[in-house]
Design goal:
With about 60 residues, this protein is α+β, with helices and mostly antiparallel strands. It has one helix and five strands, in the order H-E-E-E-E-E.
Amino acid sequence: MNTQRAKEIAASPVMANVTYNGVPIYIQQVDEKNETARIYPLGQTENEQEVPVDSLLEH
């Protein structure tokens, strides 16, 4: 996934089908400069992590 698309998904009120390592995730925030995204698995807000945007897949 590219940074611009990740930002669009993060800003959208509509839930997109995005995964990280096969796990459905929610994109909380995108850092354009570092090309990373703050994500967490759906329903697991306590497992927040920062990952490279290009490791996210939209289905």
